[in-house]
Design brief:
Order of helices and strands: EEEEEEEEHEEH
Number of helices: 2
Radius of gyration: 18 Å
Distance between the termini: 60 Å
CATH class: Mainly Beta
CATH superfamily: Sortase
Number of strands: 10
Strand order of the largest sheet: 1-2-3-4-9-10-8-7
Length: 222
């Protein structure tokens, strides 16, 4: 397991171009190993992760981080035939992605949401992820109009060469959320960013949609 990287961050090249793919490796508990911004040169066969509890009714539509003033729509991310997980379109700075064959945010287990830290044109949705601290909240707006609110309990940075996949993606009994992006030093010769920033969060509430005036009037008449 990697030790936590000190908060002092190495210099970053302004707005480097992120590659539009993430690596995937087999690991304990069918964990994913996200290598956002890294070359896909890891050896060994790919393995599809174990399916989670997904539902079109509760599918996530948007992720919001009030402290960062982030409100980004979520696109579905899937694995290709080679076992690689896609990432959001780097041409869109305000976009995040949810691994749709995993856990739906708010259901037991780890829901996975990823976004770029920056793009060729400027900072992206998760540019300030590493500045958050324990207690910051993340809201996931879902298709059934409910809002799943998570509270971050840790922010850590891990070298991609020593990524603790089981800790990040291993099964949990409660509903949790993992937010991932790139971090650390940017080294073009080594394939881009050398680390991943991971936010660990737990579900604290699911807010039901408030009744509209029309629905309240209908209840009074019934």
């Amino acid at each position: 397991m990697s030790a936590r990287t000190p908060r002092e961050r190495p210099p970053r090249r302004p707005f480097p171009r992120l590659i539009a793919a993430a690596g995937l490796l087999p690991a304990a508990a069918a964990a994913l190993v996200l290598l956002l911004g890294s070359p896909l040169t890891e050896p060994g066969p790919s393995a599809a992760p174990r399916a989670g509890s997904t539902s079109t009714k509760t599918a996530p539509l948007r992720v919001e981080i009030p402290e960062l003033r982030v409100s980004a729509p979520l696109v579905d991310l899937t694995l290709d035939s080679g076992g690689k997980l896609g990432v959001p379109d780097p041409a869109d700075r305000n976009l995040a992605g949810w691994y749709r064959d995993g856990v739906t945010p708010g259901s037991p287990g780890n829901a996975i949401v990823v976004a770029h830290v920056d793009t060729p044109t400027g900072p992206a949705a998760f540019a300030g992820l590493d500045t958050l601290g324990p207690g910051a909240t993340v809201d996931v707006r879902r298709a059934d109009r409910t809002v799943a609110t998570f509270r971050i309990y840790a922010i850590e940075e891990f070298e991609k060469s020593d990524f603790p996949s089981e800790r990040v993606y291993g099964p949990t009994r409660d509903a949790q959320l993992r937010l991932l992006t790139c971090g650390g030093a940017y080294d073009p010769a080594a394939g881009g960013y050398q680390s991943n920033v991971v936010a660990f969060a737990r579900l604290v509430s699911i807010q039901r949609p408030q009744p509209t005036v029309a629905s309240e009037n209908a209840l009074r008449r019934s």
